[in-house]
């Protein structure tokens, strides 16, 4: 394997074709179904699928027997299914399957974009491509095929590869189990799973994700009146729905420290993950927290860097991501409001059942409502996390060499605070599979927020790593 040739091929394809394709992809406001209930009528999801399908079909002619299908189950978001048979030789190693995963749906716009940027306005500044979805993770299908094409360019053999690109990940992947079951016979039994939807601690080395937190959450509403009333008349008599809501949230979170209170939402952190957190903190230093756009004078919850890593990867944490029942400031009269609602996003440890956490959360919030208020918690999601199995010696060695070849630095290992439901799903279905989970979401890339960007050099290097590892997987499988 000529690693310099892989580098040259992948870099050239990114510059000539992939970046222009991602520019057009960013223009499409294909928000995930949770954020666009009329996604079918709007047609943006179909536009994104068509863009990727057209480009991918133009490249599949390089592979003997390759096929692409846009699978559409009734009432569900579409899924792109690509099957590239084993290439190069016959015999040993050709009966194994590599699954490469990504998604094409996007988070909503979010406010706060710079004046010259926007979620659906692709802008290239230096080595960064700004806009929603390029890094999270529209690049996945392009990077996956670029890796296979780089092997084809050298005539290097590889096992059968299946590429799955879903359109519901940002809504919790609730459609994906139906597709996995529908396609189970065609997917087979994966030996290696590659996911490009994760993060990286910096852009200087390859980062492998060792765990992902689960997530549960929904809408908590406290109602005290049938309609709003004069605050001067009612305050002191009618309890404020906002005060009751604060009291109820106090059952879940310590308002002073941000720590989650119920022991039922914690797990014992494996010693290996604690050691990896310590090493990651040593590598990253203050980049653990100074990648975030703090206001002047603001500081993180603790100065202990390893604890910060563990907080965002193995401990439950709460975020209030939306508010209802409150008028804008410029139209807020002297009224005691009838109700207050908040959207809760609770990240839970990788090995805690998301369904168990969701059930517990609903019971905790709804029980014994203060003053007899009407308290409801509508559970929206309860996805479990994932803890990676130990790397096989061949994969650990392949990752180490690939990071040195394409990044010029050792590989690093760290858990991620976000969720990729597909990983937990595959981990349960295929416990013998090996996992290569990585991505381009590094410092300041700000997925889900304003000014999201794709760091183009990292996208290229990750594609090179995938090519290298897929080739080495075949070499290992051929020994069996």
Describe it.
- The chain is of the alpha+beta class and about 475 residues long.
- It is about 35% helix and about 20% strand.
- It folds into two domains: about 5-210 and about 385-480, Aminopeptidase; about 215-265 and about 315-380, 2-Layer Sandwich (Alpha-Beta Plaits).
- It has helices at about 5-25, 40, 45-60, 135-155, 175-180, 185, 230-235, 240-250, 270-285, 285-290, 305-315, 355-365, 395-405, 420-430, 455-480; strands at about 65-70, 80-85, 95-105, 125, 130, 160-165, 190-195, 205-210, 215-225, 230, 315-325, 335, 340-350, 375-385, 385, 410-415, 435, 455.
- Strands 1-2-6-3-7-17 form a six-stranded mixed sheet, with helices on one face. Strands 11-13-9-14 form a four-stranded antiparallel sheet. Strands 4-5-18 form a three-stranded antiparallel sheet.
- α1 packs antiparallel against α4, α1 packs across α15 and α9 (about 270-285) crosses α11 (about 305-315).
- It comes from Luteibacter yeojuensis.
């Amino acid at each position: 394997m000529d690693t310099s040739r892989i580098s040259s091929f992948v870099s050239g394809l990114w510059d000539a074709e992939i970046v222009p394709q991602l520019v057009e992809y960013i223009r499409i406001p294909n928000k995930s179904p949770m954020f666009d209930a009329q996604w079918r009528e709007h047609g943006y999801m179909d536009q994104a699928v068509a863009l990727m399908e057209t480009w991918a079909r133009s490249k599949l002619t390089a592979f003997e027997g390759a096929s692409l299908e846009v699978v559409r189950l009734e009432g569900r978001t579409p899924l792109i299914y690509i099957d590239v048979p084993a290439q190069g030789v016959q015999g040993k190693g050709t009966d194994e399957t590599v699954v490469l995963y990504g998604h094409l749906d996007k988070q909503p716009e979010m406010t706060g974009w710079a004046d010259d940027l926007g979620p659906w306005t692709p802008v290239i500044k230096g080595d960064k491509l700004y806009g929603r979805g390029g890094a999270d993770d529209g690049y996945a299908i392009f990077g996956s095929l670029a890796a296979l094409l780089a092997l084809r360019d050298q005539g290097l053999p590889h096992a059968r590869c299946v590429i799955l690109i879903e359109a519901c990940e940002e809504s919790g992947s609730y459609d994906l189990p139906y597709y996995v079951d529908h396609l189970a016979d065609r997917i087979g039994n994966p030996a290696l799973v590659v996911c490009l939807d994760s993060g990286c601690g910096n852009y200087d080395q390859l980062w492998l994700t060792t765990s992902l937190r689960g997530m549960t959450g929904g809408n908590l509403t406290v109602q005290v009146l049938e309609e709003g009333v004069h605050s001067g008349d009612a305050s002191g008599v009618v309890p404020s729905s906002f005060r009751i809501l604060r009291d109820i949230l106090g059952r879940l979170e310590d308002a002073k420290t941000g720590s989650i209170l119920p022991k039922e939402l914690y797990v014992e952190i494996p010693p290996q993950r604690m050691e990896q957190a310590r090493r990651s903190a040593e590598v990253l230093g203050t980049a653990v927290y100074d990648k975030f756009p703090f206001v002047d004078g603001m500081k993180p919850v603790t100065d202990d860097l390893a604890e910060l890593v563990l907080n965002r990867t193995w401990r439950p944490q709460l975020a209030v991501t939306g508010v209802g029942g409150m008028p804008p400031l410029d139209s807020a009269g002297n009224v005691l409001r009838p109700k207050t609602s908040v959207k809760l996003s609770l990240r839970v440890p990788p090995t805690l059942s998301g369904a168990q956490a969701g059930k517990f959360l609903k019971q905790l919030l709804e029980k014994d409502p203060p003053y007899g208020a009407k308290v409801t918690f509508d559970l929206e999601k309860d996805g479990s996390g994932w803890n990676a199995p130990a790397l096989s010696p061949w994969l650990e060695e392949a990752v180490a060499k690939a990071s040195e070849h394409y990044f010029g630095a050792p590989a690093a290992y760290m858990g991620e605070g976000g969720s990729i439901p597909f990983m937990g799903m595959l981990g349960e279905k295929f416990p013998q599979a090996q996992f290569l989970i990585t991505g381009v979401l590094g410092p300041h890339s700000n997925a889900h927020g304003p000014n999201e960007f794709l760091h183009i050099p990292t996208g290229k290097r990750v594609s090179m790593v995938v090519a290298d590892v897929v080739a080495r997987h075949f070499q290992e499988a051929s020994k069996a």
